[in-house]
Amino acid sequence: MTPRPEDMVATYEPNIGLEVHAELSTRTKVFCGCSTAAGAPPNSQVCPVCLGFPGVLPVLNRNVVEYALRAALAMHCAISRPSIFERKGYYYPDLPKNFQISQKRAPLGKHGCIEIPANGAAKRVRIADVHIEEDAAKLLHPEDDPQHSLVDFNRSGIPLLEIVSEPDMSSVAQVEAYMNAVRSMLRYLDISDARMEQGQLRFEASVSVRPEGASELGTRVEIKNLNSFRAVTGAVDYEIRRQTRALEQGERIVQETRLWDDARGATEPMRTKETAMDYRYFPEPDLTPLEIDDGWIARVRAELPELAEVRKKRLVSEYGFSEYDAAVLTSDKSAADAVEAAIKQENVEPEFAKNMVTGPGFRWRKMREDGSGEATQHVQGGASQFLWTPDREAAVIAGLFRLVASEQITGTAARDYYPRILDSHKEVEDFVREQGLQISDRDELQRLAKDVIAENPDAVENFRKGKEAALKFLVGQVMRKSKGRANPQMATELLRARLAAQ
Q1: Residue 461 CA neighbour count, 13 Å, CB half
Q2: pLDDT in tens, 42-81
Q3: Which of 403, 435, 467 is the last residue of a domain?
Q4: Do 254 and 128 lie in a common domain?
Q5: 159 shares its domain with 202
Q6: What's the CA gap between 100 and 487, in Å, rounded?
Q7: How are the residues of the chain apportioned to helix, strand and coil, as percentages rounded to the nearest 5?
């Protein structure tokens, strides 16, 4: 029996696009010489240009263009010739000029793409445009004075790279993969630290829902000011469910801007959506069109570094790593750098270097994570402070590798020492000497074996019943008592002999 149209239940599919706002890691702002260094006192890194005083003129920072060009070429964009700066007009307390210098009709790059993993295959997400703009100031809302807000203009004029995707993503998982891919690209290109807790990476999501198979996109809703991966995925998931439920109930979706309420786990209306006309775009009269010649494009293209996906394939072919291990390593550029430096500069076996970094090394990064997904670069050690680098980590890996190879310490001890050495300012040999080298003294190992046998009668009985795993457990207890310093081969032999003699 053919179902009647009124009895059929529509299935809906989402279409999701993201705008990524990445703070470029130049030393000075985009249109003036003020510092971009984080942590300065409020309103201490400002001048008449970034404060929007009348009569001042912006001067474009060449490094900002260089960094933006790297990103545009890495995403296979066509470069606009020329690229035009425009004034985007709107009023808000954190915008001193009442307009933002941005790009709309002739952005630096357009019609690019980036690939993400999706359902075991590569999915291409189209990039609508890549453009340069200046950041606004930062509004502060003191808890002890809810009637007033403060403005810190240090951030005003910070260079931003905005990456606008087409609505090519259809699930929360794809959105998360896209965010990871963009953040990885920014870091591999060395153009942004992309630390979300410092506001260096922010997102705006556009979500629409349409009947499955429909050719026309649904009504788009934009979600503003998302500053963490969790906020983005939570907001997108909620908005898909909200719009789907509304359409199923015959309601109309309103084109609007919404905000994410993390505490409630819901989006809420902010304002009806502006259009480009509302921003009154017009060419910035104080900046000439940006001409990027063929030579500049060719040089930047030739200097593009190896990005994560290419590096992953090379690690598999060059060192024999599994696809999974290579993916884990390349997810953190500093980790992959440390492994390759250990292998190439220090002659460490690839498997040892990989195991150190993906095991204790990643646990160390997680403990030292500052919210951005990467370990902090400055590590406190004793009374002094040193700059942590992949080369420093490679030297630690190499030092531990030599000690394990010469049987002065065990692999277990190396894994234990690894994060502690990274947190210290000491050389590997000095640190290990303080902890004590591997115990190979038979008398001391005999004493440890005797104690372990006396303390674990159930394991002893299981061993006598032929359960070989019980012996491994007893060896583990010897290693625990010796804090990983016992020679495991000797401990196994002595335990076996002692159990056989009883």
Answers
A1: 4
A2: 999 999 999 999 999 999 999 999 999 999 999 999 999 9
A3: 435
A4: yes
A5: yes
A6: 66
A7: 40, 20, 35
